[in-house]
Sequence to fold (205 residues):
Amino acid sequence: MKKSRIANFIKVFVKKPLDVGSITPSSRFLAAAILKNLDFSKLKVVVEYGPGTGVFTQFLLSSSSPSKTQVRVIEFNADFVSHLNERFPANQYNIVIKQDRAANVKNILKTPDELVDVVISSLPFTFFPWEETLATINASYEVLADGGVFRTYLYLHTLPLPKIQRLLSHLKVLFGNLNSWVVLANIPPAIVVECIKSPGKMRAH
Ligand SMILES: C[S@@+](CC[C@H](N)C(=O)[O-])C[C@H]1O[C@@H](n2cnc3c(N)ncnc32)[C@H](O)[C@@H]1O
Fold:
């Protein structure tokens, strides 16, 4: 990864540590792990939350065909949004970059009944108030198509925290299933958690 991107990431971390949640960008190993086995030929809309400097975004764009898949990213921090706009200009990539909170994911839909195939989250849930975690997860569930996939990563050392245990319990109740895989080649080591929306499940509240 370019040194300037790492410097940019650290600069934003120093200004807003709790929003960013990690002092270093994710590794390419974590990017590969969070996107593994997604069949991009079948994905029309992929939404990424909290892309930061765009480590996962780069992988998403290079794994997908611009004629089939649109990548939409929701980033809260204005410095990262400027960086993403420079790095991934909309005239070169099939991308929509929006400055917003992930809980407002519905704002990124083209029509109110449009559905999303995959949500990839880098959000630092450890530092979120529970209400925002709940609003974000429920809104994600609502916009996902049947069979749609929600993936997030968590740092291994945060797993015992009550907030993270509560998040995992809520995901389990809502989606009814959780898959996970560990990624040691990241600082800090992480675990990817995947939930798949099964057809005909209840609405989120
Ligand atoms: C751990 S960093 C992302 C790291 C990214 N995967 C990378 O490697 O560069 C978390 C990101 O989530 C963003 N963020 C925090 N709260 C958010 C929210 N409610 N909605 C959207 N983005 C948010 C932060 O600004 C930051 O870019």
User: Anything to note?
Assistant: Residues 9, 19-22, 25-26, 49-53, 55-56, 74-77, 80, 101-102, 122-124 surround S-adenosylmethionine (CB under 6 Å).
